[in-house]
Every structure is written in structure tokens, then in C-alpha cells.
UniProtKB/TrEMBL annotation:
SUPFAM superfamilies associated with the record: Outer membrane efflux proteins (OEP) (SSF56954)
PROSITE patterns from the UniProt entry: SECA_MOTOR_DEAD
Subcellular location: Cell outer membrane
Name the record gives this protein: TolC family protein
Signal peptide extent: 1-19
Species classification: Bacteria, Pseudomonadati, Bacteroidota, Flavobacteriia, Flavobacteriales
Domain of life according to the entry: Bacteria
SecA family profile domain ranges (all copies): 1-478
Primary residence: membrane
One Pfam family from the record: OEP
Length: 478
């Protein structure tokens, strides 16, 4: 008995754990998307590349230091690097060196390159912020669509409960002979139509949930769900601002304008970098080198026993040959490795000046091309301001129209509710038929659905307007 109780308890806990699957709130969806969305990750990579570009630009101010070393073996007739004598031999030679160079002046190109890297980093940061804004709105739109579909299903279910009650009541009245059979058939047809619409509504919920999950890169479609809660209408004070105030605020706050401004600054900085090639380049260098050989060193000289003398000339008056002792070098073991390095080292240093004289108009062409890019960036900035102004104006009109549509939907829904209540009372006392009752019910149901649609449409469009006004993503209220 205890075992059965224990197994039942385990089974109950398992069922409870399955039933309590995580349901996502809108804020959780937005936060998850900001951390995992592919487009945002790509924008973060662009920002990382901009950081690398800045690091490289800073490195241009530092000296370049390079070291080299080689150890080689030569076999055949070669010169002994120690004695200078040509010999058929196998030699081993080692050499090493360190070279340092530093740019002293390059037409301020390094300085301008660093400034450009910082501007590029700023532009990438603005692009990342814009991407986060876009993803937030995209997720919010998908989330509100799921919520609308869910609440639409609840409306259909509540209306179907009324239909089922009326169908049972009509059935009783038909069996009592108070109503014709046609009224019961009309109510049954209405019930069948509502069942079909509930199936479609359920499918719409599933599809919208899958779409939201894909946006969040969540692959467990079956268990993914959102919190079943409505969102209130608030924050309408945003519409109390004039559209021109919102436009001016958007020009100061929105990333679209900042990105265009930084792109213009980048183009201007490219012109300065290109003009730097007109100037001479001055650099300094320093080199240290040394060498070592495995050949024996000269330790002295002695007369060659096989050829003790050698001719050095002829006496003009007598024609006698002049000879001298034929000394040959005697070789000992090579000096220690580090002793040779210290004895054979040397340094070189100096400055180098390069003056551009003629380069086939290459520099001039780069300068002119970048000046064209500056003009293009100026036009793009102007176009971005025009587009932003048009978008803000459209968003303002959309939000205001959505709010008015929502208020009108509330009035219409209230009127249809009263009409449906009146039709219900008339139907229950036999003053109207089932068809007229069903039509009143459908109109009330459509009015409720329109209230939901207008509500979430207004919430979304208001959030768009708030973003244009400069409200941070984290401060958006739903």
C-alpha cells in the first residue's frame, strides 16, 4: 500500500511538473531576443571588429621591431668567413640581427587613422542600438499577435457557451411545441460555425507561437508558450506632444541620424588620410647584427714543409728570382659561441626621408574619390533626416488614429452588447427568431474582436512612437 502511495505521489509530481511549463512574458522574450538574436550578434561582431581596428591604429604609433636568425651549412669551394681564404670545405655559419623602425612623420595619416577607427567604433555602437530597437519592436509585434489570437479564442469560447445555453433552451422549447424546429437547426448551425472558427483560432495561436519562437531562436515549438495576460492601455500622454516636438527629439536621439552623421565623419576622415600621401614620410631605424662560425680560427703561421718558399719577384739587373718563406696559417679550434657573437657584432642607425614626386595621379585620384564619398554621405544624412521625419509623422498619425479607432471600437462594442442583450430578451420570449438572434450575436462577437485588434494595434504603434521620442528599450512599458 505504501509503495502504491509512493508511486502515485511520483506520478502526480511528474504530471504537475509537466503542467507547469515555463510561460514567457513579453519582457523575457525581449531580453532573450536581445541576447540571442542572430542580427544582434552580427552587429556585436561589427562592433568587435571596430575595436580591433582602433587597436591596430594605436599600434601604428609604436615602433616596429623584428628579429632574425639563421644557421646554415655550405659544402664546396667557399670563403672561410674567419680567414677570408677560399677552401673546399663544409662550413657552418650563424648570423642574427634585430631591426627597429619608427615612423616620425607621415602626413598625420596615423593620427587620422586612429580618429577614423574611433568614429567607426561609434557608428557600430549606434548600429547595434538601432538593431536592438528593431528587434524589440519585432518581438513585441509577434508577442502581441499571439496575445490577440489567444484572447480572440477566449471571446469565441465565451460566445459559444452562450450558444450552447441557447441551443439547450431552444431544444426544450421545440420539444414543448413553443418554437419551430427551424430555430433549433439555426442554433445548431451557429454552433457548428463557431466550433469551426475556434479551430481556426487555435491554429492561428499555434502558428503565431511558432513564429515568435523562431524569432527568439527557440526550437522547442511544442512546449513554448506565453503568459496569458492582457496589457492595459496607458502612456497615451505621448500623443499630447506635437508631431514637430517628436520629430525634433527623434533627430537628437535616434540612431538612424547618428549613424548617417558618423558615416559622413568617416568619409571626411578618409579625405584627410588620402591627402596625407602628398606629404613626405620621415622614419628612423636602428639595426643590431652579429655572426658566428664553426670554422677554426687562425692561431699563427709556419713555413709550409712541402713548399717552403714562394716567388715574390725578379731582380731586373740579374734576372734572379726573389723568394720568401711560404708561410701558411695554422688553425685552432673556434672561439666559444658567445665570445664570437660579442666580437663580431655591429650596429647601424639613421633616418630615412621619402618625398613623393610623381605617382601617376594615384594619390590625387584617391583624394577626389573620397571627396565624392563625402558628398554622397552628406546626401545620405539629408535623406536620413527626411526619412526619419516622414516615419515619425506616419507613426504619430498611426498612433493617434489607432487610439481613436480603439475608442470607437469600445463604443461600438458597448452598443452591440446592448443590442445582443435586447435580442436575447426578445428571443427568450419568442418575439424574434433564431436567425435574428444569431446575427445579433455575430455582430457582438465581431465588435469584441475589433476591440482586441484595435487595442493591441494601438499598444504597438504607441511603442513605436515612444522609441522615436527617445524612450530607451528597457523603459518601454507594456
Amino acid at each position: 500500500m505504501k509503495k502504491l502511495s509512493f508511486l502515485a505521489c511520483i506520478l502526480f509530481l511528474g504530471i504537475s511538473a509537466t503542467a507547469q511549463e515555463k510561460k514567457w512574458t513579453l519582457q523575457e522574450c525581449v531580453n532573450y531576443a536581445l541576447e540571442n538574436n542572430i542580427s544582434i550578434k552580427q552587429s556585436e561582431l561589427e562592433l568587435e571588429l571596430a575595436d580591433i581596428e582602433e587597436l591596430e591604429a594605436k599600434g601604428n604609433f609604436l615602433p616596429n621591431i623584428n628579429a632574425s636568425a639563421s644557421n646554415s651549412w655550405n659544402t664546396g669551394l667557399t670563403q672561410n668567413v674567419t680567414t677570408g681564404i677560399l677552401q673546399t670545405q663544409t662550413t657552418r655559419n650563424f648570423s642574427a640581427g634585430v631591426t627597429a623602425s619608427l615612423t616620425l612623420f607621415d602626413g598625420l595619416r596615423n593620427f587620422n587613422q586612429l580618429q577614423r577607427a574611433r568614429i567607426s567604433e561609434l557608428a557600430s555602437q549606434y548600429a547595434l542600438e538601432k538593431m536592438k530597437d528593431d528587434i524589440t519592436l519585432f518581438v513585441a509585434d509577434a508577442y502581441l499577435q499571439v496575445l490577440f489570437n489567444k484572447q480572440n479564442l477566449e471571446v469565441l469560447k465565451s460566445q459559444n457557451e452562450v450558444t450552447l445555453e441557447q441551443m439547450q433552451r431552444t431544444k426544450d422549447l421545440v420539444e414543448a411545441g413553443s418554437l419551430p424546429q427551424g430555430d433549433l437547426l439555426e442554433i445548431k448551425a451557429t454552433n457548428a460555425d463557431e466550433m469551426q472558427r475556434m479551430i481556426v483560432a487555435q491554429n492561428n495561436i499555434r502558428i503565431s507561437l511558432i513564429s515568435l519562437a523562431q524569432t527568439l531562436r527557440i526550437k522547442d515549438y511544442e512546449s513554448f508558450d506565453i503568459v496569458d495576460q492582457g496589457y492595459d492601455i496607458f502612456g497615451s500622454e505621448m500623443l499630447e506632444n506635437s508631431v514637430y516636438e517628436i520629430i525634433e527629439r527623434a533627430k537628437e536621439e535616434r540612431s538612424e541620424i547618428r549613424i548617417a552623421e558618423e558615416n559622413k565623419n568617416l568619409a571626411e576622415k578618409d579625405v584627410e588620410i588620402a591627402k596625407g600621401a602628398y606629404w613626405p614620410t620621415l622614419g628612423a631605424f636602428f639595426n643590431y647584427n652579429t655572426r658566428e662560425s664553426g670554422m677554426g680560427r687562425v692561431t699563427g703561421a709556419e713555413v709550409d714543409p712541402e713548399n717552403p718558399t714562394r716567388e715574390i719577384g725578379v731582380v731586373e739587373s740579374t734576372g734572379d728570382l726573389v723568394v720568401a718563406p711560404n708561410f701558411v696559417s695554422t688553425l685552432g679550434s673556434p672561439l666559444p659561441f658567445f665570445d664570437q657573437l660579442s666580437m663580431n657584432d655591429g650596429i647601424s642607425y639613421g633616418v630615412q626621408l621619402n618625398i613623393p614626386v610623381f605617382n601617376g595621379f594615384a594619390v590625387r585620384g584617391r583624394v577626389k574619390r573620397n571627396e565624392v564619398n563625402v558628398k554622397r554621405a552628406e546626401y545620405e544624412l539629408e535623406q536620413a533626416e527626411l526619412d526619419l521625419e516622414a516615419n515619425v509623422y506616419q507613426a504619430y498619425v498611426d498612433a493617434k488614429g489607432a487610439f481613436e479607432a480603439y475608442e470607437a471600437a469600445l463604443v461600438a462594442s458597448e452598443a452591440q452588447e446592448q443590442a445582443f442583450s435586447y435580442a436575447t430578451d426578445r428571443y427568450e420570449v419568442g418575439l424574434t427568431n433564431a436567425f435574428d438572434f444569431s446575427q445579433a450575436k455575430v455582430r457582438f462577437e465581431n465588435a469584441q474582436r475589433e476591440v482586441l485588434r484595435a487595442k493591441y494595434d494601438y499598444i504597438f504603434k504607441l511603442k513605436v512612437l515612444e522609441l522615436y521620442f527617445g524612450v530607451p528599450v528597457a523603459d518601454l512599458k507594456f
